[in-house]
Amino acid sequence: MKNLLIATCFLLTANSFAQGMFGKNPYRNQQNWDQQRVHYGYYLGFSSYNFKFDYKKSFYEKNGSDEILVEPTTGFNVGLVGNLRLMEYLDLRFEPGLYYTRRKLFFPHIQNPDQNTRDVASTYIHFPILLKFSALRAGNIRPYILTGISQSLNLSSNETSKDDNYQGRFRMKKWTANYELGLGIDFYFEHFKFTPSVRGVFGLQDELIRDKNPNSPWTGDIESMKTRGLFINFTFH
Questions:
Q1: Domain count of the chain?
Q2: Where do the DSSP E strands lie in 21-72?
Q3: Domain range enclosing 123
Q4: Could you tell me which of 156, 132, 149, 150 has the C-alpha nearest to residue 75?
């Protein structure tokens, strides 16, 4: 009976909360929040980075269909949010953050098992400038889409290293330009706003630094290597 009473109270409380947040005529929390000219926040989240490789014709002539394989892992993100209201449904956002990720590259055309893999650990300082297009607010929720550009500084790029893949050192450029596209939902609570979002990040520039040997089996026949990323962030304002 005690457990039944606790469960009943929980269900009634949850139902009341749901009605208050999402019901037909919910009480509108933070009614003047979106009228602020400027506001700030922070985010925590997860990321999964990948690479998109484009190859020269000579790569397939030498190696057939044995393209480079990328094994991504889940990294973490943390950062700040600065939001500038431009008009009713449009905001400008700056979301600098720290992103840590690791990718494992497998080169199937290299037979030596000691040389056909590379672990690529990257720590990025990410600088996105985004436009946020919000829908009409419905009760205490407001969906949006966003798009923009970003620059990423890779602190683990090895760009200045004199060693290359022949010494086991995979090298990338420090700075990368990207475009971004995402969507999310603003949830308005009594004392704060919570926003889960998902975003795709697409590198615009070739990031690979070639080995000194132009015939290198790791880099010689690669036309370009560009970042692809998926971010899931949880923002608090």
A1: 1
A2: 38-55, 69-72
A3: 38-236
A4: 156
